[in-house]
Write a structure and sequence with these properties.
180 residues, 4-stranded mixed beta sheet, 3 helices, alpha+beta
């Protein structure tokens, strides 16, 4: 695996953020994503490649479709893509597929019940992707209220959204109301 360039041999824009840390803005025209053995790979300017990269939205709630951080397989940042819509069609499709998988968020249509047990909450719900059972811990830390509804994060890091207009039974509503 190759490391990010330390010289300007691969054309990148450098900026300094408010904390003084270096931020690499990747030039979209030089990026090519492909998939190898099920892993997302990145080649920059036909000179440097990473055999496994991850994509993370820098601002998932406010600018979910822009500002993607590209991380190597150790979690080190390779750089930031300002606007993935400017990628070539094949790379853009792979990026969209990767983001859809990473940020999959089933919409809860109906909560059948929430049972508190040993400091966790065990949920049973119907989503747009079928019936689910999951557990949450520390609701204060794992519940976010947004304009679209309530986002729950389970003990495995999966996220679920309860739309503002969802039907909740009384015990579930009380549990959520006491946690937010």
């Amino acid at each position: 695996m190759m490391q990010p360039p330390s010289s300007p041999s691969v054309k990148q824009e450098l900026a300094e953020n408010s904390l003084g840390a270096e931020l690499r803005l990747l030039t979209v025209g030089e990026l090519r994503f492909n998939r190898n053995a099920g892993k997302l790979c990145l080649t920059v300017a036909k000179r440097q490649s990473w055999l496994a990269v991850r994509l993370v939205r820098a601002f998932p709630y406010s600018a979910g479709q822009r500002y993607l951080s590209v991380l190597d397989n150790q979690g080190g940042e390779i750089g930031l893509i300002m606007d993935p819509d400017e990628l070539d069609a094949e790379s853009r499709a792979l990026v969209e597929e990767e983001l859809a998988r990473r940020y999959r968020m089933p919409r809860i249509r109906l909560v059948y019940g929430v049972r508190e047990r040993f400091g966790t909450q065990e949920w049973q719900a119907s989503t747009d992707q079928g019936y689910v059972r999951f557990s949450t811990r520390h609701l204060f830390d794992n519940v976010r209220v947004g304009s679209d509804g309530i986002i729950l994060t389970d003990v495995d890091g999966n996220r679920y959204i309860i739309p503002a207009d969802a039907q909740l039974e009384a015990a579930s509503r009380r549990l959520l109301d006491s946690s937010i």
